[in-house]
Input
Amino acid sequence: MPLIPWPANYLLGNPGMDNTHAEFAALVNSLAVAEGREFQALFLALLDHTGDHFGAEEALMADTAFPSLEEHRAEHRRMLGDLRALGQRAVQGRITLAHNYVTEHLPAWFAVHAATMDSALAAHLALHENQVVNAAR
Output
């Protein structure tokens, strides 16, 4: 059974966010069963993906004057900090802590983050759809 069953209750109605979240879930689910060098490579891919994912969300928040931008950004920074620290250990071959973080922490974090912060962002973006389209041009 996957750690993050997709789509479950994670769809937000924003295709861009939903696609990015599906990719995140797939990476986490792959990491759960990976070992050794495969785990190292996938963890670095998760770190890159998450950095890009958060950067894209933060750009949308800034472009549409999302009122909770700073709180959302702070949560992103905290998570990226955790992932970077674990990634440094993983590339040195010390993957146990990173593996435990993936299996024990990330699924619960994602469920709460998607249901609270990201659902609020998706609702905000739906109200500002024209701004999002214009910002993408």
User: Anything to note?
Assistant: The mean pLDDT is 92. The two ends are 40 Å apart (CA to CA). The chain has one domain: 15-136.
